[in-house]
Each structure stands twice: as structure tokens, then as C-alpha cells.
Amino acid sequence: MALSQVVGRLVGVREHEVDPGGGGAPRVPGRVEAVVVGGGIAGMSAAVVLAERGVAVTVLEAAPTLGGRLGAWPETLADGSRQMNEHGFHAFFRQYYNWRSILRRADPGLGFLKPVPGYPILSERWPTEEFGRLPPAPPANLLALLLRSPSLRLRDLRGMDRDAALPLLAYDPARTYAEFDDTTADELLTSLRLPDRARAMLFEVFSHSFFNHEAEMSAAEMIAQFHFYLLGNPEGLAFDCPDEDYATAIWDPLTRHVEKHGGRVFTGAAATALTRDGEGWRVATADGTSYPARHVVLAVDPPALAALVAASPDLADHAPALVERMPAFGRPGPPYAVARYWCDGDVAADRAVFSGVSRQPTLDSVTLYHRLENESRRWAQRTGGSVVELHAYACEEGVPAGELAERMRAELIALWPEAARLRVRELRARVEAQAPAFTPGGHARRPGVRTDADGLYLAGDGVRTEFPSALMERSAATGILAANHILRAEGGAAEPVRSIRPRGLLARRG
Ligand SMILES: Cc1cc2nc3c(=O)[nH]c(=O)nc-3n(C[C@H](O)[C@H](O)[C@H](O)COP(=O)(O)OP(=O)(O)OC[C@H]3O[C@@H](n4cnc5c(N)ncnc54)[C@H](O)[C@@H]3O)c2cc1C
Predict the structure, then answer these.
(1) What region holds the Amine oxidase domain (predicted)?
(2) What angle do CA 477, 229, 363 make, to 5 degrees?
(3) Which atom of ligand 1 lies at the shortest distance from residue 272's CA?
(4) pLDDT tens across 257-281, in order?
(5) Distance from the CA of 324 to the center of ligand 1, in angstroms?
């Protein structure tokens, strides 16, 4: 354990128990059926826990492959080689306790997760700044950032509005939303009176990673995420990534695990409507089949959830509060773009595997897949090439994927001039809008895991939790919470749920 973590523990920055789990039988007594709609992280996390406790669980996933926004699927390149393509690079942070606990079902030692050295932020205007090597835990990480970061000098601190900065250190799951949910992240950042460089290099890169524009994102959500990733996180900003594609490392083993425990996982099975059926539910799918179950977990992305609820008239009677929240919840954040390039040639040997990018109009991150995943590495070794993935987390509406990919490539060349020499052999580019929006004022109406209908639960990264969580970790945590509600209703033992320090270091008690 690092010294900063020892100090952090003394002030309560450590793993916290949200739910100890247990309280029931290792397997539910009697036959219990559950349907999970959506085979991404949220749905599969729910399915894993339910199947292990003997619930007869069926996962219905609309796409031909599992994983949703962490999906992976095979593609054949023009040179005839088969390559897995993915929905995009993901950082597996170490405070993702619930997601990691699910992943241990795929590999108990998490051997497939390899540390990614460094977390640099690139800018055309300022020198690269490194975040991955800060001491892991607060308050030492914050002090080191203030002392080491060339973007924030002592005289800048004097010019800052320190009162405006205090809420960042005082995250509280109720008070932060009461005070800041109506403010935008942009307004909060402006009120700090940071030097432009510090704002760009330390804050904007971070808030972009939540798939929302600062001017349209709640300041309370930004404070919550600063707490979750930096100011309340005992594990640090360093992260890990699978060394195989997500299907091989995660989805195939988790599917086998669910099936081994008697569950069923169907892909290409889009749920089209939900109807009340006696004490339970019936989920209809596009091929005309219908699945009866006492419990249903809707673990789909926000627009898909709104569409499914709208196509299920029974919910107007049985879940009016859910129905009422859907129009706002179902509007996703701005589109995001992912472009994976297979190229001849490589960038400089000292370029990092993953880099965040600040203040480019489109480009937000660069990943060198041929230095990350084994299949890409083999392809690059064979061809002398490289596999480079570019992301934009919140881009302009209505721009085609190919054009966004080209804009991102041009912006990469401005940062790494040698990228101009890469000859593009193949490109797979996508633009999609499925990420939850965290608009100002939205928190009070954000749906939680429990709905107002008996036996109907939600899970996903847009679903509200009362403890710090975000992105993949929120999907896994809400999936487990949904499973726990079902298990408690049926006499089965619940799964433990964990998170980081629930409040900021300067949050008032009570
Ligand atoms: C480019 C990119 C990079 C990211 N990077 C990171 C990162 O570095 N770290 C991090 O923590 N998070 C990251 N994320 C976010 C992360 O991917 C999501 O938070 C997480 O995968 C969401 O999982 P989910 O299960 O909640 O939703 P989804 O993955 O959206 O899963 C929902 C599933 O439901 C299915 N579905 C929809 N409608 C139906 C229907 N009617 N019937 C049946 N199935 C249906 C969908 O096909 C999908 O598989 C990133 C996301 C993207 C797009």
C-alpha cells in the first residue's frame, strides 16, 4: 500500500461497504424466473448474480453480440485478416469494485487486466501533462497536483476563487445536488477563476470524459465525478485494460458463467414490449416469442429504455412515475465518435498507449491498440503497421462518422506530426448517441433501480445511485442492486455492494 493510501485511510479515504449482502439462502428456494433486457455491463452483471443464486434468468440482447457500449465483434479487413473491432477503448479504474467483482467471475485473478503506464494529457498549446503518476489517494494526490502541475502555480492559486472551489472537496450525495444541480459545469468552472491552461488541462479533459458538454452538464454531476475519480478515490487515477478484445476477455467467459449456473443468454433478441401478466411480466421480442417472468430488469441504454417504455402501454397503469420520467431521461447526451485506423507505419516509440487530448475541436483521446491488445499487436508485427483509435466524447450533431474520423486524424497530426506519415489501410468509424445526459436540474427526476412497479427494475449508467459511481462502474453496481432487490424478495442472499468514501473530505456531517 502506498504512503498516500495509508494517510488517506486515516482520514477515511478507503473502500466503503454500501450493502453487506447476505441475509438469505445461497440459492433461492423454489423456482424464480427473471428476464434481463440488455446484455451490456448492467444486464450481464445482474444476470451473473441472479444465475449464481439459482434464479432462472434469461438475458435478451438485441445486437448480434453482447457488451453494448463495451461490445466487440469480428470484422474482416481488405487484406483478408480477421480482426475484432470494439465499441471503443475503455479505462478500467481500480475503484470499480463492483465491476471488478463481476469480472472476477471471468478470471478470478483479473490477470487479463494489465496496468496502462501513464495517463498523459496532450495539447497543441501547452506541454503534455501526466496524471497517471500522482500518488493514488487524497489528500496527497491533490497536494501533489497543486505542487507539481505546471498548469497551476502558487500565484494562480492566489488568483483563484477558493470559496468557489470548496464544493469540489465537499461532495455530499444530498447537499451537492441541492446546491449545484441547477448550475452548469461550465458556470462552476468559470466561477473558480482558474488560469485558462489549468482549466483546459486539469478540468475540461476530465468533464469531457462524461459524454456531455460542460455548458449542458450539471455542476453537481461534475463535482460527484471529481469525487469519484480523484478527491474521494483511494485507488488513484492509474487504470488497467484487457490485453485481449472484450469478447474474448469478458463476454465469452461471463456468458459461459451464466450458462453454467443455468441461465440463458440470447443475442439478436430485441425486446419490443412489456406487458403485465398476473403477478409478473411478459417480455415480447421482435421474432414473436414472449418470455414470462416474475421479475424484469431493464438494462438498456437511455434512448432504448424510453422507446421500450413507450411501446408498453401497460406501464401507464403499473409504473406511471417511470413513464412520466422517460421523455427527459430518454434524450441522450451529444453524439460520440469512435474511429479505428489500421495503418502502414507507426507513431514515435515513446508515444503513450492512451492519451487524453485537451482543447481540440473534435479529438478527445488517442489509443495505440497495437501496444495494448494482443490481436492488434500481432497484426502490426505482421504488417509493420499500427492500429490507432481516436475518440470524440461529445461532438457536433449531424456530422457523418467518416468526416468526424477525418477531423480527428487531422487534429492528431497537429499533436503528433509523425502521424501524417501513416498510410491509412482501413478505417472503421462510427458516431452514436446512447450515453446518458446529465443536464442541469435533472437529478431529482433521474430514475433509480427500483421502479414504481412491483418486480420491475432498471440498471445502467444513467440510473441513479445513492453512492459514488459512474460509467462502467455504475452499470455494474446498478445491475447488482437490481439483482439484490429480486433476491431479497425471493429469500436469496444478496451480493455485497461497495464504493469509495461516500462524502468529500470537507463535507459537513449531518
Ligand atoms: C467510446 C466510449 C468510451 C468509453 N470509455 C469508458 C471508460 O474509459 N471508462 C468507463 O468506465 N466507461 C467508459 N465508457 C462508458 C461505458 O461504455 C458505459 O458506461 C457502459 O458500457 C454502459 O453499459 P450499460 O450496460 O449500462 O449500457 P449499454 O452498454 O448501452 O448496454 C445496453 C444494451 O441493451 C441493448 N438493448 C437496447 N435495446 C434493447 C432491446 N429493446 N432489447 C434488447 N436489448 C436491447 C443494447 O444493444 C446494449 O447491448 C465509454 C463509452 C464509450 C461509448
Answers:
(1) 41-487
(2) 105
(3) 41
(4) 999 999 999 999 999 999 999 999 9
(5) 23
